[in-house]
Automatic annotation (TrEMBL):
Residues 18-88 form the HTH gntR-type domain. Transcriptional repressor for the pyruvate dehydrogenase complex genes aceEF and lpd. Keywords: DNA-binding, Repressor, Transcription, Transcription regulation. This is Pyruvate dehydrogenase complex repressor. One of its GO terms (molecular function) is DNA-binding transcription factor activity. It comes from the Bacteria. It holds the Pfam family GntR.
Length: 248
């Protein structure tokens, strides 16, 4: 893992509270699940990870042990040993539908309110603060969505686009908030169902947001990001109603 990648990922991982194994586990699962650490990629050393999270080494080791038990990571011994990310296991669609059906209408509405607020603020700030490097990252994940061939790849490209907007806003808090939201509902957005968004449609909406950011138009960027998120949650609400009707 190169120094630039390590520094970039570290900004996603700083904990609000120190010494909590559960917090370390949750954040590592988030960054792995969202593809911030790629399959087969070696994690930083235990000392480096502990420093990035702001926790004691013993806490970090407890978290890694838990992730090994869940087969999220594997540890290899020897000269080139360390902790490596295991291949992702794609959840069956039936599990995702069940998870969505268990969510309440109020929970989805609250998620929509929160995500609209976060994404809109991030896009507006990105239009004011982003650099050409940020713009290139946004374009990369727009292209990655078009190249994706699996649900996991589509979900990760989609999530990383939204996370990169928060990164371009140069706000650690907005980045953490966007990551948490993507970890919570991002996979549900790609449940294959009649009326669900296509990669082509998502690409088009992402491209419009990115163009507004690159044009330094905060009002348009924010409005497009908010509309994009609202449409996505609305599709989830409609799908949840359909799922509930099927079992009624």
């Amino acid at each position: 893992m190169n120094n630039n990648s390590s520094a970039r990922t570290a900004s996603f991982m700083r904990l609000r509270q120190e010494g909590r194994t559960e917090e370390v586990v949750r954040r590592l699962i988030e960054v792995i699940d969202l593809g911030l650490f790629a399959e087969g990629e070696q994690l930083p050393s235990e000392n480096e990870l502990a420093m990035q999270f702001g926790v004691a080494t013993v806490t970090l080791r407890e978290a890694l042990a838990y992730l090994r038990e869940r087969r999220v990571i594997e540890t290899r011994r020897g000269r080139n040993g360390g902790s490596f990310v295991c291949p992702a296991i794609e959840l069956p669609e039936v599990h995702l539908r069940a998870r969505l059906a268990d969510m309440s209408a109020l929970e989805l509405r609250d998620l929509c309110d929160e995500h609209v607020a976060i994404s809109g603020a991030a896009a507006r700030l990105a239009a004011k603060r982003s650099s050409s490097e940020h713009h290139a990252k946004l374009q990369h994940y727009i292209d990655a969505l078009g190249d994706a061939t699996t649900r996991t790849e589509r979900r990760r490209a989609d999530a990383r686009f939204h996370i990169e907007i928060a990164v371009a806003a140069q706000s650690v808090r907005l980045t953490h908030a966007e990551m948490s939201l993507q970890a919570e509902i991002g996979e549900l957005m790609w449940i294959p169902e009649e009326g669900s968004i296509t990669p082509e449609a998502a690409q088009s909406e992402h491209r419009a947001i990115a163009e507004a950011i690159m044009a330094n138009d905060p009002n348009l960027a924010g409005a497009l990001a908010e509309a994009h998120v609202t449409r996505g949650i609305k599709r989830l609400i409609d799908l949840r109603l359909d799922l509930l009707a099927e079992v009624a």
